[in-house]
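Moderator note: this is an archived Q&A kept for reference. The question asked for a predicted structure of one protein chain; the sequence and the answer are reproduced below.
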Amino acid sequence: MSKRMRAALAAVALGVWTAGAVAQQIDVQYPAPGLFKEPIEKIVEEFQKAHPGIKVNLLGPQQDYEQIVQHNLRAAITNTLPDVAIHGMNRQRIMVERGIAQPIDEFIRQDPEFAKLGITEKSRSVGLVNGRQYGIGLAMSTPVIYYNADLVKRAGGDPDNFPSTWDGVIDLAKRIEALDGGGKYRGMFLSWQITGNWMWQALVFSHGGTMLTSDEKKVAFDGPAGQKAMNVLARLVNEANMPNSTFAAEAPNFIAGRLGMLSDSSAQISRFNREVGSAFPVKVAKFPISAPEGRVPTGGAVILMLTKDRAKQKAAWEFVKFATGPKGATIIVKSTGYVPATDLPARDPAMLGEFYKSSPNHRVPLDLLPFVSAWYAFPGENGVKITDVIKDHLQTVVAKSAKPDEVLKRMAADTAALLPK
């Protein structure tokens, strides 16, 4: 056989191998690059090492949970949907109601590997809509309070016994603000603007309330629990001098040691540990639960399969399994402060076992899991609009431009007007 023929056969063989090596390509999209860019890119890198026959094409990330919803709704019209997308837990409902998200019950039932991944019941439950499995909790968080242990101690508090009530937190905030004659430090900031009214829900749920009645026909957040929740927000503004600001502005102040306490998602744990470094001890406390039946909403994201193509669905399912399984979960936790979808890594010293021992802050959201409930999504076509209306009303409280009790009444009335009739 001539050299030319051997070279030709080798080229053909290489072409066949290459075609087989990349048997399928899937498009994946994610939101909130500030949180997800690093871990998602790492997950894709590791996934493709384990699955060389599947190429993952990462589409441009969307800024937040609301934007990826709007982007995917438009893409459904133009037939340009990604095959897999990561959505906020409270936004998957609209993806299901519009027929965009595809159920994965069949894949779970027929795949013997799934049971070996250690996916927790909580991770599965957050992906249930109307009794069917559409997603799996890729990244779960809880509201927490970050605090500067040095400032807490200087203000007369005990860094190892952080207040468990809002009375204690507000009192501590006032004392931090008064340090060094006042004006140098801020005491407290609550990230009330978090997407999907998440922190408002945390305040209401932790006082034992709900957003709507059980039949989803009437507003319920204007009852006693909502009144107490609104009172906490107003007290933070009026008594603790909480600024009319944003998380984007206040996170650098906390990192620089100018803000004593910041209540936000546990997803920020790794960031604060990393960026504060040794400047002062960063500690994490549980969000106050103010009623015996109080709960806090589970935050974070679910991973959804959007493609209807059966061949792509098989490839997409492999990616979903990897991202929520032990390797993907380990990457997510170490990059953020989310709770893993599977409980296997915590038992493995090479994954998260030793990590949790060396980073007790990451254990706080795990300890809050017995007190979590679903991140609520308002029903109907106006679901996203309702969250915008609530946010606008809360802004008037933080800006001190309206009385809290009047705001709550107007907020309830405006929400009721947007519910399905």
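Archived answer notes: The chain is about 45% helix and 15% strand.
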